[in-house]
Amino acid sequence: MTQPPWARRRDSLVGSEIDASISLLQRRPRDTVRFSIGSPSAESIPTEIMRDLANKVIQTNGPELFDYAATEGSPELRAALLEFLSGTEERTTDDRLLITSGGMQGLDLAGKLFVDPGDVVVVEAPTYTNGTATMLSYGAHIVEAPVDGDGLVVDRLPDLARQAGRPPKAIYVIPSFQNPAGTTLSLARRKRLLELAHRWNCVIIDDDPYGWLRFGGSHVPSMRALSGGDPLVVSVRTFSKILAPGLRLGWVDADPRTIRAMIAAKQAMDTCTNLPAQRIAAEFVSGGFLGAHLRRLRVEYRARKLAMQSALSEHLAGVADWTDPDGGFFLWLTLPGVDTSELAEAALAEGVAFIPGRAFSLSGAFRNALRLCFAGTDPQRTALGVRRLTRAVRLVREHARGAS
Ligand SMILES: Cc1ncc(COP(=O)(O)O)c(C=O)c1O
User: Fold this and answer.
1) 119, 140 in Cβ contact below 8 A?
2) Considering only CA atoms, which of 17, 41, 21 is closest in space to residue 348?
3) Does residue 168 line the site of ligand 1, with CB under 6 A?
4) What is the CATH number of domain 62-289?
5) pLDDT at 404
6) Interval between CA 245 and ligand 1 midpoint (Å)
7) Which CATH number, 3.50.50.60, 3.40.50.300, 3.90.1150.10, 3.90.25.10, labels domain 8-46+291-403?
8) How many angstroms does the Cα of residue 209 sit away from the middle of ligand 1?
9) What gap in Å lies between CA 261 and CA 100, rounded to an integer?
């Protein structure tokens, strides 16, 4: 059969096992407890408020609501966000702000602007491989750096750069409650990362969707706050985890020159971000709902994390180890001797879904680990999911023993 005339980059478009799990589960008829995708829970979407705000937006606007919007974002959402940010450590200015179609578009624009084919891009291992996939789509040479209890092991970067034969052009880091490991980059490492970026003149892609969802431990300044507008820091943010992922809304805070170049790139990409979604989010933020919502989420997610840990302690103590994050959405489980890709299939058959560890690095490492999202399920359903997971673990271990 005739092959279409693919561009060379086609082979670098590796997709996302994480995203693919959404359609996989949609096709499944039976009840499945979803620890897989990093979505806020149905109960933590403020549906009533959103419905009222959506009605208000539709009723008080004419056809202009369905017109093209300014590429940099609707004036209403920009103003509301700037006002909200002014009360946080991430206060910023109009010329540093771009509204994007979710955090993923912020990552894509950063890759487009800073990564040429063959450029070294450092990513964490494990990491949110959608970010890695974005960098790969621009031809990045990916170098994986280890993560420990204090986040990315920044002191390993000079060695890795030496091995790669050139310094990185970009460092992709998830500083707070990392996806999937749940770790937070320590203050000392944040500072060292900034020093290295300056030594190498490379950008830090500061992907921080979970930073406002701290429910324990002590505050660490965000890379944006710490760097005070450093032109080498590109801060990618999203409404997906703090409001609703289906809105597909995020923002980038970066040097005005970067923002201008991103606007030009976005004009060749999707022209503007969905206007009705922006207007609803603007009402949510300017109406003062976001602060209260964040406070509620922190309380709820802490309870959900504890519920998951307690179910794990009841059923899998001595079999698995898990992390204890101070915020965010995820626990990272290690199951020595268990292939978690095999386990994922057995678990699906039992009615529980998670993302196996190999999905979080390009090299397919972490085969004995897996990611559980605790944010999306209430304590009762979490307990059910953990019981199902435990049955799957038992089956896979029996199978492995039988085979040896
Ligand atoms: C670390 C990280 N970055 C970016 C994103 C993508 O955000 P969005 O859904 O807004 O595109 C996610 C979503 O899971 C994430 O965990």
Assistant:
1) yes
2) 21
3) no
4) 3.40.640.10
5) 63
6) 9
7) 3.90.1150.10
8) 6
9) 13
